[in-house]
Please model this.
Amino acid sequence: MAKIVDSADVSPEANIGEGTSVWHLAQVREDAQVGKQCIIGRGAYIGTGVKMGDNCKVQNYALVYEPAELEDGVFIGPAAVLTNDLYPRAINADGSLKSASDWEHVGVTLKKGSSVGARAVCVAPVTIGEWATIAAGAVVTKDVPNFALMAGVPARRIGWVGQSGVKLEQVEGTNRFKCPQTGNIFEQVSENELREVND
Model:
């Protein structure tokens, strides 16, 4: 059974998975699909029709706008934002107020195990690869490869991370990297592609 505190605003049309917690002042909109064992922190916003896998964490005051999709094990840090409008305007060119049908929704996709740091912004449409990490305060404007460590404005790759989230260390004289925490070995096969080595 999900745990939803009294001050949270969860639409009866949202689907909240078993064991998920929705904390104070969080809002989960209509048709949102939230998986099992997720945590939605204080003041977080989950937009209409957003899809979240199992074991995701959306920290305090993060904003996840539709049509974002989060695979299993995704982390969204405090006050991070996933946008949904390429050309944001309050009014049309003729001065009339924009309505819900006046713009095209575009989303952010976060692949399994990826993380977005505190106050980072992902400008839709972008895809964040599996196990990638976006540093706090970064602004992501392009797709991010699996295992990439991204920082800056605009975000650029400053290294690689493994499943533990720790920065990988290059094995001297090779195109291989090792996780100092797990010992797992990875191989860089191109400028923007890293693969885990299973031999």
Notes: The CA atoms of residues 41 and 60 lie 4 Å apart. The chain has a mean pLDDT of 96. DSSP finds no helices and 26 strands in the chain. The longest strand covers residues 185-190.
